[in-house]
Amino acid sequence: MKFLRDNGLTIVLAILTVSTIGGMLLTGWSVHNHELAEHGAARVGLATYATSGHFLSSLFENWESEFLQMSAYVMLTAFLFQRGSAESKDPDRPSEVDDDPAAKAEELDAPWPVRVGGWTRSAYSYSLGIALASLFVLTFILHLRYSAEAENVEAHMHGQPATSIMDHLSSAQFWFESLQNWQSEFLSTAVVVVLSIFLRFKGSPESKPVASPHSETGG
Length: 219
Known about the structure:
Blueprint: H1 2-38, H2 46-50, H3 53-79, H4 112-116, H5 118-125, H6 127-157, H7 165-169, H8 172-198
């Protein structure tokens, strides 16, 4: 029970992720087979569909936009402020997250990169942003690959020539797929930043205390 209590947020999010990917897989399989039938092509099995460009392009397209949102959010909030928002540091007061980690290098419970120092500590100081940005680049590449594959399957069904990955990278279709998700991620982040100035959710660390004034920054 202690394990479930201490890790409940991750467990529930993992279950929701797997469940929704499963739902996406099944519904996408149905849609894809319907499209194939309309063009007189043979249906594909679920396992084949799970490794197809039609499914993986959509999957990585969404992951790409989420990792872009999270990496941008982590990096931008390190330097920019929104007075009154629970998602921002206080522009008038020093924040604990800006403390020099070298000052705690002698503490035994400090993470080992902090105790080691040098470039290891410097890299660790920005490791969250680096990891999220790396995941964005990886999923961008995977989205590009499988989007090109899906596009070529579509072209084959219409008797059109296949295109290379580089040609697909410069196509309006690929950037339409990406930008339609990117804009929604930036918009939703901006909405949360602004609404957290005026609205509350009791018990959430993403909210200020219910009785805090609107001008107060921080959860």
